[in-house]
Amino acid sequence: MKLGYNEIMIVSMYFNDIKDFINLEIGVKRFQGNMERFHFNPIPLNEYSRKLFPNIETFHIYNKNDKIFNDRRIIKKVIWYQVDYSTYLKEKEQGNICKNIEYTEEDRNKYGNIIPSEIKSVGYNCFYKCKSLTTINIPSSISKIGDDCFGYCSSLTSINIDNLQFVSEDRIFINEPVLISTEIPDNLQIINGKNIENKDINKFIIPSSITKLGYRCFKECSTLKSINIPSSINEIGDYCFHECSTLKSINIPSSISEIGCWCFYGCSSLKSINIPPTIINLRSGCFRYCSSLTTINIPSSISKIGDDCFGYCSSLTSINIDNLQFVSEDRIFMNEPVLISIKIPDNLQIINGKNIENKDINKFIIPSSITKLGYRCFSKCSTLKSINIPSSINEIGDYCFHECTSLTSINIPSSINEIGDYCFYKCSSLKSINIPSSISEIGDECFYKCPPLTTINIPSSINEIGYNCFGYCSSLTSINLPPTITKLGEWCFYGCSSLKSINIPPTIINLRSGCFEYCSSLTTINIPSSVISIGYDCFYECTSLTSINIDNLQFVSEDRIFINEPVLISTEIPKTLQIINGKNIFKKDINKFIIPSSITKLGFCCFKECSTLKSINIPSSINEIGDYCFSYCSSLTSINIPSSITKLGDCCFYECTSLKSINIPSSINEIGFYCFS
């Protein structure tokens, strides 16, 4: 069958990365222009990838931190991450769609005790201590009920459930295709107009219409001894059998592809379990405190094992592993093409029917069949001094060499295109590392607390440096940021106490909170005109910083330095600063600052804590006042907002304790949270 344009569009909708879209068009000439045919974004986008999808009309926001574009072509947004009901109503007014709506305690206080039909989940403590609640209807749309949702609802005697499945001694099971449950409220008497009839949980036959066992579905069903999971089910949710203390055995069918976090946590009677080869991920705490579990199998399909998966399995003496690679003093390495590992359980004696034979981790030769070093692969291998990474590997996973305290150097081959978050976190002996030009991003806290690291070369292929990436690299004296860098994460160089100078390229638009905080040896820095935001405490405790070079200086007050256009931003004057642009600082009265007409926005924290500011004229060129703009301006008595302004940011006039009057023009369509608090 020959794939046409429509078919390849459908296939590419399931791509996870922009590289897949690019490689498709490069590799198959007749599919060039595939991205141009999309009228929505099938993946999250950044500034670069947005240009590759020029015809988007509906913008999909998959995660809360996704970059949002509001260019003229986009007429509607689809929000996939969880939002509360209040947010949904606001988005609905603007013609947008929300796919995952939660009814929260705040929503209930505002909109009442009837759960709207659009709701997908009822939040934690939603009706907690709602003493006026006597009856409630739970619609079939609900796929999750939060903890203590109906706790201490002392007057709740009746519940109506659209899709009742079963009532046990402890819980009410409802809905499909996701089976969920809730604890039976203390004083409940009636369900669907009839007296409650509690049944033995062991007699519950899960119907074949169920495809997922939801969050905390059988949690604390203390009398559950065994249960049959039908082959219609493909996922077991987080905390599903959490603390089912009498559960002795369970059969997981091969239809299951995912087992949630803490799924069997505290199943203290569970002696054995079969993990089918369809499972690819054993999540955090999955079998923690399964104190009777004596043996378990780990199939070759597993590509990730979460934190503390087998923690406190005190009877676990034997493990069968389909694809064993190596056993060190600390960890068992297994599987391919993703190499993963687990910490050796405390009482383990047998692997694959043989006594454990521990080997020196430094003698482990990674086979060429491995293409990825998985999550926490070498985490806390405290005796690992060096390792050769073969060119077959293209990715190093999150926490891979986390706390490898003896690791002094590592060579990363050019085949690697991704280094995960926390990858070399607290590698306290790491002195040098090469980053090849195949890498485009350095993850969050990647080199956090690597104190011997004195220098690092960042190739021009890098465009992002993550949160706290070089935090507490106390021997790092210099670093060169290439002009390809577009993002420096929060606290990126926090505590780099030996860093003397750094050049910020003109591609940077945000200097985030704490970026250079406690860089006590930093003497000079440049701020390019591209910067539109400077976060909290960016230069806090930079006790040697005496000189700043600013491309576009606007004004220097007693407290702050104002810079750049069309977004006017500012930063607190560092305590030791003496020189700006080669001249001694000349501070002026903030009340004499005339905002130039080239400014279109007053940026984040622009006039924050300007305690002597009494009044200011905002020119009609400005259309937005950013978050915290005039917060803590304790002497500000009045302000005139021109009709050009359309938005007042969050906490804009927060703690303006002298503000007596303000005009809000009809042009304003958005007033942020706590604007006048």
From TrEMBL:
A Pfam family this chain is assigned to:
LRR_5
InterPro entries cross-referenced by the UniProt entry: LRR_5, LRR_dom_sf, Surface_bspA-like
Q: Which PANTHER family match?
A: IG-LIKE DOMAIN-CONTAINING PROTEIN, SURFACE ANTIGEN
Name of the protein this chain belongs to: Leucine rich repeat containing protein BspA family protein
Organism field: Entamoeba dispar (strain ATCC PRA-260 / SAW760)
Q: Name the lineage.
A: Eukaryota, Amoebozoa, Evosea, Archamoebae, Mastigamoebida
